[in-house]
Amino acid sequence: MPTITRQDHRFSEQPLIFMQSDRSLASALEDLVREQRSYLLESVKLGQPAPPGTLTLAEWSTPSHYHRLTQRYSDYLYRDHPGVQQEAKPLQSLWAQWYFGLLLPPLMLALLQEPRALDCSPQHIHVQFHENGHPCAFWLDVHEDEDARYLSPLQRIDRLIQQCLMPAVDGMAQHGDINAKLIWNNMGFSFYWFLGELKNLLPENTILQLEQALFFSKSLLDGSDNPLYRTMIPRNGEMERRSCCQRYRIPDVERCSNCTLKAV
């Protein structure tokens, strides 16, 4: 566990009384998201009771739930190609992109813009699934992570990786059809993209520190392996994802606009 230091954030110079606002954390976060990136509220619900049918990581990652959901998604994507063999790896790669593509931005915004740290433990995150099987919305039980209030931006993101993202990746990869490396490679681009979205909200040195730690440091703060290391690399004068996400292998699914494979 990294040493706790006082965080440098937009409210750090205000008296403590303002940091101890009587507004609930859920209300503060909802206001923050609405002000900065209101579209995120379409797929993340803060402090609202999770509706029936939503599942926590401990639930959706069980073999019965996971295989049912990913098979439903596969049947949907291959619906017009009954004679084509369904491939689990690219299918689950795309499923994981739905999961982290929807979840990661609001968590990053909350952790990097709100003085009180949101507790991102998996048991507080409920996933809603589309009728086609892929994740479509997240319902967050909003609790403050008091141990993280005075952590730096980098320490907060490191905590997010270890406490929230690693268990979710393991929950997907444990079934054997997709490896964790591919999921992290996809997630690296999500991190890089949303850091770009935050460039007008965070100090430049904070963005640079996070990019350096996420993509160029072999280890996390506790010395363990950094799963995002070199998921984004300098190439052709800019930062690009290291490898292909495999989605192109699914019929009628277009390549990413930044696909690493040469055009055919």
UniProtKB/TrEMBL annotation:
Q: Which GO terms describe its molecular function?
A: 2 iron, 2 sulfur cluster binding; catalytic activity
Signal sequence extent: none
**Which residues does the UniProt record annotate as the domain Ferric siderophore reductase C-terminal?**
241-261
The record ties this protein, via InterPro entries, to: Fe_iron_reduct, FhuF_C, IucA/IucC-like_C
- Aerobactin siderophore biosynthesis IucA/IucC-like C-terminal domain: from which residue to which, for each copy? 93-236
Q: What is this protein called?
A: Hydroxamate siderophore iron reductase FhuF
- From what organism does this protein derive? Pantoea wallisii
Q: What is the lineage of its organism?
A: Bacteria, Pseudomonadati, Pseudomonadota, Gammaproteobacteria, Enterobacterales
